[in-house]
Design goal:
alpha/beta; eight-stranded mixed beta sheet; Rossmann fold; 8 strands; single chain
């Protein structure tokens, strides 16, 4: 069943009108990360601070003193996006500024791999930030190397066509869910209203929020610039990238029921999959089926299981002292 992509009219979208991202940025033509940031800031508004580690967006924003974003931006080391955002939020709290949203914006390499320790610590403490991973499924900024977000069978410069990636993509959303944070969600640049709604919902919730945003990358995916949104939409309609959200680590909601278009339509638009034979494509189909069975089982389970009990903080006796060691 082919996805009907002709009925989707971007002129009928209901999105915030204000623009916080300026023109003149340094993104490649067709870059999904540029569109993703534009939508994210439309959702969050001007009272936002953005933390960007080493990634494509560290370049896209432009060289100092120039910048494409009309909000404060802090560029940090590759592995420190989450903890830097956490520190900024703590400083704002000390100053009594509770109306500013802090968003960490990192690629899949800086999230799934290099920044994982920092991210896990931040969400384990339930620090009040929004963490967005814009996922183009490889280290695109440094030369299209494999990351743990790279899907099975994909070509990269470190998994060439004769030895493509043999391992499945790491399920980062489920790892975040297991931290029992208040809100975790997937999103796509091809479904902007859904993405904006999820960003605003995350903004309204206190605690750690994680948004996994699938984006197109013409250079790394070996695709045409004009097909970026179409490919992102097919990632959803084939079932490759489900749109869903999880609250309190338990309650799952599938936000869009895909058409389950045959995955070949998605694969054929990307040169990084052109080497796959029919047996490898069939393996992808079987895994898609399995992943959807698992996701639907979690939705059903979440309807039966109550939210986890809220943590109870120990009372501290101000007159008490810590025991001294011998």
């Amino acid at each position: 069943m082919a996805a009907d992509l002709t009925t989707y009219d971007p002129r009928n979208l209901h999105l915030p009108e204000g623009e916080i991202m300026r023109s003149g940025h340094l993104a490649c033509p067709g870059c999904g990360a540029a569109l993703g940031m534009r939508l994210a800031l439309k959702a969050l508004g001007p009272k936002t601070m953005v933390v960007i580690p080493a990634c494509c967006w560290a370049v896209i924003n432009g060289p100092y003193p120039f910048g494409a974003l009309d909000v404060p931006v802090l560029q940090v080391a590759f592995e420190t996006a989450a903890i830097s955002a956490s520190g900024i939020k703590a400083a704002l709290d000390v100053q009594g500024k509770d109306d500013i949203t802090v968003m960490a914006w990192a690629g899949d390499g800086g999230t799934f791999d290099i920044g994982f320790q920092s991210l896990s610590g931040t969400v384990e403490r339930n620090d009040d930030i929004i963490y967005v991973c814009y996922d183009n499924e490889a280290y695109m900024n440094t030369g299209i190397q494999r990351s743990s977000a790279t899907p099975y069978g994909a070509w990269t410069t470190t998994t060439p066509a004769h030895t493509p990636k043999a391992e499945p993509k790491k399920n980062m959303v489920e790892i975040m869910v297991e931290h029992r944070i208040p809100y975790t969600a997937t999103a796509s640049i091809a479904f902007p209203e859904d993405f904006v709604r999820k960003m605003r919902k995350a903004q309204s919730i206190r605690g750690a929020k994680f948004i996994h945003l699938w984006i197109s990358c013409p250079a790394g995916h070996k695709s045409e610039e004009r097909s970026s949104v179409k490919i992102a939409r097919l990632a959803v309609e084939t079932g490759v990238f489900p749109l869903y959200e999880v609250e309190d680590g338990v309650h799952y909601t599938i936000n869009h029921e895909p058409a389950f278009t045959d995955v070949t339509e998605y694969l054929e638009l990307q040169g990084r999959f052109r080497h796959l034979d029919e047996s490898q494509i069939e393996n992808i189909r079987r895994n898609l089926e399995w992943e959807w069975l698992r996701l639907r089982a979690k939705v059903e389970m979440g309807q039966k299981v109550p939210s986890p009990p809220a943590p109870v903080k120990a009372k501290v006796d101000e007159g008490a002292h810590e025991p001294r060691g011998e």
